[in-house]
Amino acid sequence: MVVHSAHLRPQGSARFTTETAYCARLAARRMDLEEVVDVDVLGRNQVVLVGRVAAVPEERTLPSGDVLLLWRLVVDRPPPRRAAPEGVRMPTVDTLDCVAWAAGVRRSASSFCTGDVVSVEGSLRRRFWRAGAGAVSRYEVEAHKVKRLQRAA
């Protein structure tokens, strides 16, 4: 995998640029990436997930008239680095809300069934809306590209 870091020259000193480039290379090494090449590392919001669909996707129409498709993805967590204390059970999965706004992505994701293994590429978003008591927010993955990898058994 290659991380690109082009706009590492923000307005400011050469020292900032050098420190930024160093941080990008250090982050790439920690993530076992091959190299850091020219793209903006500091401003990237990219999520890549592979997991199981928890329930049939649900289409919703917002009061604005926008249509979206929502589904939940269950993703396995990597094993913990150290053993859990006796009697404490550590979580083994994360359940993430995914949303598709684009018609093509909605069409592809609408065919997902419970238990399908799928890949989702997109961005992490925090969505706000008004509820009875006031403003409410939720984090979700806005899907830009989806693909079924394996059908449910």
Question: Can you put this structure into words, describing what you see?
Answer:
This protein has 153 residues and is an alpha+beta fold. The protein folds into two domains: 2-37; 47-150, Beta Barrel (OB fold (Dihydrolipoamide Acetyltransferase, E2P)). The protein has two helices and eight strands. A five-stranded mixed beta barrel has the order 3-5-6-8-7. The longest helix has 17 residues, at 14-30. It starts with a strand and ends with a strand. Mean pLDDT is 80; it is low at 1-17.
The poorly predicted ranges are: 1-17
State Rg. 19 Å
Strand order of the largest sheet: 3-5-6-8-7
Strand content: 35-45%
CATH class of the largest domain: Mainly Beta
Give the helix tally.
2
What is the helix/strand order?
EHEEEEEHEE
Oligomerization state: single chain
Question: How would you summarize what this structure contains?
Answer:
The chain has helices at residues 14-30, 103-109, and strands at residues 2-4, 35-37, 47-53, 58-61, 67-76, 93-100, 117-131, 134-150. It is α+β, with helices and mostly antiparallel strands.
Helix and strand layout, with pairings?
Blueprint lengths: L1 E3 L9 H17 L4 E3 L9 E7 L4 E4 L5 E10 L16 E8 L2 H7 L7 E15 L2 E17 L3
Parallel strand pairs: 1-2, 6-8
Antiparallel strand pairs: 3-5, 3-7, 4-5, 5-6, 7-8
